[in-house]
Amino acid sequence: MMFEGHSNNEIILHENELGSIIQCKSCEKIAITINNILYICDEKEFQSLFEMVELIDQQLEDYIFEIMNKKFVVIDTRIKKINLIFSLNQFEQLTELMNQSKYMKEVHKLFC
Question: What mean pLDDT is reported for the chain?
């Protein structure tokens, strides 16, 4: 089964303190793990998520909320009443994770 550990059939696109993004070579599905959340998507869904994170990063002030005297970036999900919440540092790690993974995905397409 794909994404069980790291096999020769998987490409680690990027990983950092926040999580990792791995792509299966055979089916091209992408697994995004952030803390204890796992999201498996295709390339189109990954691109959509990438664009959403990029847009939030560009308009960051609109997504920052103060909770118990700390600032957090709050992202709505498609699931009613469920939001993702990141500290400013975690959101910076998320943008780095997404950006580096997108670059590595393109590099692998060029060389494979």
Answer: 91
